[in-house]
Design brief:
mainly alpha; 2 strands; globular; two-stranded parallel sheet; Rossmann fold
Amino acid sequence: MDTSALINFKTLIGVSDQWDAFKLLEQLVEQGRIAMPRQVVNEASEIAHPDLPGAWAPGVRSRLRYPLDVDYEHIQRVMREAGDVVDPNKSSEDADPYVLAQAVQLRAQGLEVVVVTDDDVDRMPIKISLTTACGRLGVRHVGSRGFLTSCGIKVRRAPVHGDGEDE
């Protein structure tokens, strides 16, 4: 799971449903169905005033079943095949290559892997999106709306262009 998806959960899940939804996500972490590298946990929690996703990520850190740190060989592969996923202008460490490396590492261990991300816009010539990088590495991906729906979490309906409604 990448930071963009985690942060976007709060916009997709109604306020009254967020507690139950994040408790379910916590169970998925404990079951080993959600993995996040250390950099995602850090990005989500380093917000000046963390909200539910920003507090949830470090709260489940000790329950993650897969290592927070990715083996260097997988990071090297990501940087070789999709290194332009890193924004060269970013002043802090970028989580995207670690999300990809973790996906590649878990897949190499025989696990079925799908990266959850809402980063789907290439910003050339600065950087490619995480979904484009997933394509280069042959890693499946899904957006946060699709992921939450597949988990049985009620999401707000997608607004119809121009109606201004969110539920």
